[in-house]
């Protein structure tokens, strides 16, 4: 039975990843900040739930010490934050404290989690899927704004590319994924697609990834996105 670790699995895309991999017969280790308040997640049959605030880098190291020795077929780095309201992200009023928090959660945590889990991923010749965003694409930026979020995702794209190069000799493949504009708390009600469609698409993309195609940036439909 393959094993997947999903972060931020109490709602949104993370919850859907946990549901779909559990339904497909995988062993699912799902993390969230507050397991006691994560009824939708703890209610899924067979899912193991672990408490983890990915912004707490000591907790990330402890999580790695607990799970990093087991064979891990897939690590889905899903937990993420938008970082703040429009004013906090706007020219003239960027909130530096919120920006640093956003980087810790969206950019540094994915690296520290990869470091913490690399031993287990190597055992299974596993994969790392990082949920990033098209708004982290420099080439695609025509509107500006959302500086905290955009920069954290542009930087995590580089984290993913580095991981792909550095972990290839250990047989670990990496993919950067834009889930589409999805109806979640972050995506909002006007978003274009459901979590079900986004996650089924991303699972197909993840299935197709190997060390030979590692370090690329795709949307949920498999379309490659320019950096
Ligand atoms: N929805 C979209 O349209 C869209 C588009 C592009 C990219 N994405 C990316 O896709 C991923 C999932 O997004 P979503 O739409 O499902 O977002 P969401 O509905 O806002 O859910 C975010 C998840 O991340 C968790 N999280 C936030 N900060 C955390 C922390 N410090 N430690 C642990 N967990 C934390 C949240 O946990 P709590 O409940 O504890 O806050 C929640 O489970 C994110 O990386 C996001 O940037 C989403």
Automatic annotation (TrEMBL):
Gene3D superfamilies: NAD(P)-binding Rossmann-like Domain. Coiled coil: none annotated. InterPro entries: NAD(P)-bd_dom_sf, SDR_enzymes, SDR_fam. It comes from the Bacteria. It holds the Pfam family adh_short. One of its GO terms (molecular function) is oxidoreductase activity, acting on the CH-OH group of donors, NAD or NADP as acceptor. SUPFAM superfamilies: NAD(P)-binding Rossmann-fold domains. PANTHER family: SHORT CHAIN DEHYDROGENASE, SHORT-CHAIN DEHYDROGENASE/REDUCTASE SDR. This is Short-chain dehydrogenase. It comes from Caenispirillum bisanense.
């Amino acid at each position: 039975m393959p094993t997947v670790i999903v972060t931020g699995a109490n709602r949104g895309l993370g919850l859907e990843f946990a549901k779909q991999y559990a339904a497909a017969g995988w062993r699912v280790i799902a993390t969230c900040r507050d397991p006691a308040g994560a009824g939708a997640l703890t209610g899924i049959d067979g899912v193991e739930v672990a408490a983890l605030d990915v912004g707490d880098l000591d907790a990330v190291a402890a999580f790695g010490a607990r799970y990093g020795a087991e064979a891990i077929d897939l690590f889905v780095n899903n937990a993420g934050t938008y970082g703040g309201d429009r004013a906090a992200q706007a020219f003239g009023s960027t909130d530096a404290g919120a920006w640093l928090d956003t980087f810790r959660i969206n950019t540094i945590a994915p690296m520290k989690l990869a470091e913490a889990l690399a031993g287990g991923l190597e055992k299974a010749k596993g994969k790392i899927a990082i949920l990033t965003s098209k708004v982290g694409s420099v080439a695609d930026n025509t509107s500006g704004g959302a500086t905290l979020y955009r920069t954290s995702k542009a930087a995590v794209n580089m984290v993913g590319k580095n991981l792909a190069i550095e972990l290839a000799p250990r047989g670990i493949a990496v993919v950067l994924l834009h889930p589409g504009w999805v109806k979640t708390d972050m995506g909002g009600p006007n978003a274009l697609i459901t979590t079900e469609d986004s996650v089924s698409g991303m699972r197909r993309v993840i299935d197709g990834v190997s060390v030979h195609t590692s370090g690329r940036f795709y949307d949920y439909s498999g379309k490659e996105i320019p950096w």
